[in-house]
Specification:
CATH architecture of the largest domain: 3-Layer(aba) Sandwich
Strand content: 15-25%
Structural class: alpha/beta
Number of domains: 2
Shape: globular
CATH topology of the largest domain: D-Maltodextrin-Binding Protein, domain 2
Strand order of the largest sheet: 2-1-3-12-4-13
CATH superfamily of the largest domain: Periplasmic binding protein-like II
Number of strands: 13
Distance between the termini: 13 Å
Order of helices and strands: HEHHEHEHEEEEHEHEEEEHEH
Largest sheet: 6 strands, mixed
CATH class of the largest domain: Alpha Beta
């Protein structure tokens, strides 16, 4: 896993200069959102959510969209964000590096968990994971849970990948997002894509019949809302309550702006214990 550790280190380096004071301001909150597809669209989508939180919390909010997965981890590590929306692997890294705490987990399609799936074109002739030997695959990001970590665990469990994945795949790519990965399959740029199960919906309805999945990981915790280690309990509780209030009140429509989730449930670090153990196996954390 040495080469993977080097990749992760490189991904985190660009943000190392963004140091800022982690001291809490009563009148300001800093939020980082992670982009899973179109960063510009997400930046527009979250504006009503930010306005809602400013009203509920009575603070000014500064926010930005991280365009790579490493940036959201570094934002909490370096004190440039008080709160972030991120995936399970990014959370356990932020916890390991900076003591970050999870406060809510997403509920999507009625569940607080999801899976990773291996998608191929229906006309590819690929029927099972073993058929991908010598083929190309698009992952999402080296520190993506459903777009790298859990797919690799799936291939290992099937006995297809031993030590080095390049012994099985002809080529491996990191597409940078779920939509880019699923479209790489649809457009015949790669033979397969390892992505979250719901990335299928990023294709247009008329395109979806052209792809199928030939493998699925075990469930993993949904993406989560995370706060920095020393954010006060009063501010943390206020954030929890404000976000939980959305799903049961007149502002429920805002959920479509928050990655289209159904709502949230409270989570703890133990919710991510399996992700943490796998991340340690892959040298993401010590």
């Amino acid at each position: 896993m040495k080469s993977l550790r080097m990749i992760v280190s490189v991904l985190l380096i660009p943000c190392l200069g963004l140091h800022a004071s982690a001291s809490e301001s009563d009148k300001e909150l800093r939020i980082v959102f992670i982009a899973y597809q179109n960063p510009e669209q997400l930046a527009d989508d979250v504006e009503p959510v930010v306005a809602y939180l400013e009203k509920e919390l009575g603070v000014s909010i500064k926010h930005y969209v991280a365009t790579n997965y490493g940036a959201v981890v570094e934002a909490l590590k370096n004190g440039t964000a008080d709160m972030g929306f991120m995936g399970p692997l990014q959370y356990v890294m932020a916890h390991s590096f900076a003591g970050a705490r999870p406060i809510l987990g997403e509920v999507y399609k009625g569940k607080p968990t999801y899976t990773s799936r291996i998608f191929v074109r229906k006309d590819s002739g690929i029927k099972k994971l073993a058929d991908l030997k010598g083929k190309s695959i698009a992952f999402v990001d080296p520190i993506s849970s459903s777009g790298y970590l859990y797919p690799m665990e799936l291939f290992k469990a099937e006995g297809l990948v031993k030590k080095d994945a390049t012994d099985f795949f002809k080529r491996m790519y990191f597409a940078g997002g779920d939509e880019q990965a699923i479209r790489a399959v649809y457009n015949n740029f790669v033979d397969a894509a390892a992505i979250g199960q719901f990335a299928y919906s990023l294709l247009r309805p008329e395109e979806r019949d052209e792809v199928i999945y030939v493998g699925e990981s075990k469930p993993l915790p949904s993406h989560c809302v995370v706060v920095r280690k020393d954010l006060s309990e009063s501010r943390t509780s206020a954030l929890q309550n404000a976000l939980l209030k959305i799903q049961d009140g007149p502002d429920k429509g805002l959920l479509k702006n928050l990655y289209g989730v159904d709502g949230y449930v409270k989570v703890t670090h133990e919710t991510f214990s399996e992700v943490e153990a796998i991340a340690r196996d892959y040298d993401f954390i010590k």
